[in-house]
Specification:
Elements (H helix, E strand, L loop, with lengths): L1 H16 L2 H15 L1 H4 L7 E7 L6 E8 L14 E3 L19 E3 H9 L1 H10 L6 E6 L1 H16 L8 E6 L5 E2 H8 L2 H4 L2 E6 L25 E2 L3 E6 L2 E5 L2 H18 L10 H8 L18 H13 L1 H4 L5 H20 L11 H12 L7 H6 L6 H29 L3 H32 L5 H4 L3 H12 L19 H14 L4 H23 L13 H13 L6 H7 L7
C-alpha cells in the first residue's frame, strides 16, 4: 500500500531525471517553430499539425500541436461539447458489455483527429510494435496525440502496448465518465498515458464543469473525467497521481488558482520546456518530521507529500492538506484492493487439479453406468464413495466458479481483444463444457425438474458454445467415437426423451406431441452416431440412454422400424 504512493514520488523524480519528458517537449518545440506563423495567429480556426522525428537509438517521436496555440481566451462555450461514440465509429472498440455508460469524446479534439484520419491511417500501417514510440502533444495537440495512441493500441497485439508511451503537456480532458470507465477496463492501455499539468496552466481543467474552473467546487457534477497517469507540477516540484477522482479534485483546485493568476493575461501559453528545465534536478522528498499530527499512517504521509509537491497548499490557503490527503489515501486503498481482486481469466492452470480429478472420475465410472449416471444416482455405500462424491462436488464447483468468472471477464472486453482471448481459451473452454455440463444436467434432473436447455442452462455454457461456433472451426470426419460426447446437452435431450416416453403411456391428447419429440430425438441421436460424436459410454447397460431405449422399444413395439431401431437392434457393433 505504501509503495503505491512512494511510487508517485519516485516516478516523478525518475521521469524528470530521464530524457523522456525533455525528448517529448523538444519534438513539440521543433514542430511549433516550423509552424510559428499559424501558431501565433488567433484569428485562424483550429487545426492540427504533426511530425515524426526518428532516432535509431531511442525510437521515434510523433509530435502533435494545435494552431493557434491554445490559451484560455480561445476556449469558448462550444469548446466544451462532447460527441458520442455512436457517431464516431473509429473508436467503437472502447464499448464493452459491462460498461453501459455512454462513451463520449471531446468534440473539438475528435474533429481535429478526424481531419488527419486518412493520413494517420497510413502512418499506423507503417508502425510496428517492436520499435519504441513516444506520441506527444501540447494542449489540443495532446488530445489528438491521445486519440492516435488509442487507435494504435487497439490495432497492436497486447505486448505492443509495452513499446508505446503517450506524453501530453497542458492537454484538456478528453472524455466523459463512460470514456474513463472504458479505459479503466484496459489497465495496460491506461498505463501508456502520462499527462503533464502545470499549476499555472488553466487549459487542462477548463472542461471540468459547466462554468469555468474558478466557479467549480469539489462537488460540481462534471461531464469530463481524467484517465491515465497525471504528473502535476508547481514551483515546489512534480508528483504523480493515477486515481481519477483525486486527479479531478487537484485539477479543479489548480485550475481555479491558474485562472486567478492569469486573469489579466488570458492569452498566455505555458512554456513547459522552461518548467522542466527548472525542475529536472530537483528531488521531490520531504522529512517525515514535517508532517502534521493528523497524518496517521504511511499511505496518508505519502499522499500529503505528493499534495505538497503539487503546490496546492501554497496556491490556496484555505485548503486543508491533511484532510485532502486522508480522503485521497482512502480512495487509493479502495483502488488498490480492487486491483488485488481483479480476476485473471487466463490462469487456467489453477483448474488443473480439478480437471485431473474429473478425468479420473470419468475413467473409473466406465465399469458402471458412466460418469453422468453415477453422479446423478450417487448413493454413498462406503466411506470411499462418500469421499469420492464429496471431492467431485468440490471440484465441480471449483471449475464452474472459475469458468463463470472467466467468461464474464472475456465477454466484457472490447470486441477485438475479446476475440483474441476467446481464441486462446477455446480448447480449454470446450473441454470444460463437455466434461462439466453433464454434471449440471444430472443435478437438474435429479431434482425432478424438466426442460434444462430452456430453463436450467447456465448462461456461461451458452456463451462458451457461441465461442466455438463463432470461430468457424474446421470440422473433420471422425472415424472413431469421441472420448467425450461433443454436445454437452446430450444428456438433457435423453432426459426429455425419457419424459416423452412416459407421456406415450398416458393421455392420448399429449401423445402426438410426445411422439413428434421422440422422432426428432431419434434423428438427433442417429446424426450424432453417424458422425461419431457420442462417447461409447452412452451404450453402457445402466446408462440413462440405454434405460430409455429399453423402455422406448417396448412402447413402440417390434413392428416399428427406423434408422435408430435398426442400429440398436444390430447391437451397435458398428460404433467403434
Amino acid at each position: 500500500m505504501v509503495s503505491l504512493y512512494n511510487t508517485g514520488l519516485e516516478l516523478a523524480n525518475l521521469l524528470l531525471g530521464s530524457d523522456l519528458l525533455n525528448q517529448s517537449w523538444e519534438a513539440i518545440s521543433k514542430l511549433q517553430k516550423q509552424n510559428l506563423t499559424l501558431l501565433e495567429d488567433p484569428s485562424l480556426p483550429f487545426s492540427v499539425k504533426y511530425q515524426i522525428y526518428e532516432n535509431p537509438s531511442k525510437g521515434s517521436v510523433i509530435a502533435f500541436v494545435s494552431s493557434p496555440n491554445c490559451a484560455v481566451n480561445h476556449l469558448q462555450q462550444e469548446f466544451r461539447e462532447l460527441v458520442s461514440s455512436d457517431q464516431i465509429t473509429s473508436f467503437d472498440f472502447l464499448r464493452t458489455r459491462s460498461n453501459t455508460s455512454s462513451i463520449s469524446i471531446h468534440k473539438a479534439a475528435f474533429t481535429l483527429f478526424a481531419s488527419l484520419e486518412n493520413e494517420l491511417s497510413l502512418l499506423k500501417q507503417q508502425l510496428t510494435s517492436s520499435q519504441p514510440l513516444i506520441v506527444t502533444g501540447h494542449s489540443l495537440g495532446g488530445s489528438v496525440a491521445s486519440l492516435f495512441t488509442l487507435w494504435l493500441l487497439e490495432s497492436l497485439p497486447s505486448y505492443g502496448a509495452q513499446q508505446i508511451l503517450c506524453i501530453t503537456f497542458g492537454s484538456p480532458l478528453l472524455g466523459n465518465n463512460g470514456f474513463q470507465k472504458a479505459m479503466s477496463e484496459h489497465p495496460a492501455w491506461s498505463s501508456c498515458f502520462l499527462h503533464v499539468v502545470s499549476d499555472k496552466d488553466p487549459v487542462p481543467g477548463f472542461l471540468i464543469s459547466d462554468h469555468n474552473a474558478s466557479a467549480a467546487t469539489l462537488t460540481t457534477p462534471t461531464w469530463y473525467m481524467p484517465f491515465g497517469n497525471y504528473l502535476f507540477g508547481s514551483e515546489s516540484g512534480f508528483s504523480c497521481f493515477e486515481e481519477p477522482q483525486s486527479i479531478l479534485e487537484l485539477m479543479i483546485m489548480s485550475s481555479r488558482c491558474a485562472e486567478i493568476e492569469n486573469l489579466h493575461n488570458r492569452s498566455q501559453v505555458i512554456d513547459y520546456g522552461h518548467i522542466l528545465e527548472q525542475l529536472k534536478n530537483k528531488a521531490i522528498c520531504r522529512g517525515i518530521s514535517e508532517l502534521p499530527d493528523s497524518i496517521s499512517n504511511p499511505l496518508q504521509a505519502g499522499t500529503y507529500l505528493l499534495l505538497e509537491a503539487t503546490g496546492v497548499g501554497k496556491l490556496q490557503e484555505n485548503v486543508n492538506l491533511s484532510y485532502l490527503a486522508m480522503n485521497i489515501a482512502k480512495r487509493a486503498e479502495v483502488q488498490a484492493k480492487r486491483k488485488q481482486n481483479v480476476f485473471d481469466p487466463f490462469k487456467i492452470s489453477v483448474t488443473k487439479k480439478s480437471l485431473t480429478y474429473l478425468e479420473w472420475y470419468i475413467k473409473n465410472s466406465l465399469e458402471e453406468a458412466g460418469y453422468y449416471d453415477k453422479y446423478k444416482t450417487r448413493r454413498s455405500r462406503s466411506r470411499d464413495e462418500i469421499e469420492s462424491t464429496e471431492n467431485l462436488i468440490k471440484h465441480h464447483r471449483t471449475l464452474k466458479f472459475f469458468w463463470k468468472r472467466t467468461v464474464t471477464e472475456v465477454e466484457n472486453l472490447p470486441w477485438k481483444e475479446g476475440k483474441i482471448r476467446r481464441k486462446r481459451l477455446l480448447y480449454a473452454a470446450t473441454n470444460y463444457r463437455r466434461m462439466v455440463e453433464p454434471l449440471d444436467i444430472a443435478e437438474y434432473y435429479g431434482r425432478g425438474k424438466k426442460d434444462y436447455v430452456l430453463h436450467g442452462r447456465s448462461e456461461h455454457y451458452k456463451l462458451l458454445e457461441k465461442w466455438l461456433a463463432g470461430e468457424n472451426t474446421q470440422t473433420y470426419q471422425r472415424s472413431q467415437a469421441s472420448s467425450l460426447t461433443v454436445d454437452s446437452c446430450f444428456w438433457a435431450y435423453v432426459e426429455e426423451a425419457v419424459i416423452s416416453c412416459q407421456v406415450l403411456k398416458g393421455s392420448p391428447q399429449d401423445q402426438e406431441s410426445a411422439r413428434g419429440n421422440l422422432m426428432k430425438f431419434e434423428q438427433y441421436v442417429m446424426d450424432m452416431i453417424n458422425n461419431f460424436l457420442v462417447s461409447r459410454e452412452i451404450f453402457l447397460s445402466q446408462s440413462s440412454f440405454m434405460l430409455w431405449w429399453n423402455e422406448y422399444s417396448k412402447v413402440v413395439g417390434n413392428s416399428y422400424t427406423s434408422p435408430l431401431t435398426n442400429f440398436m437392434n444390430d447391437g451397435f457393433r458398428s460404433y467403434a
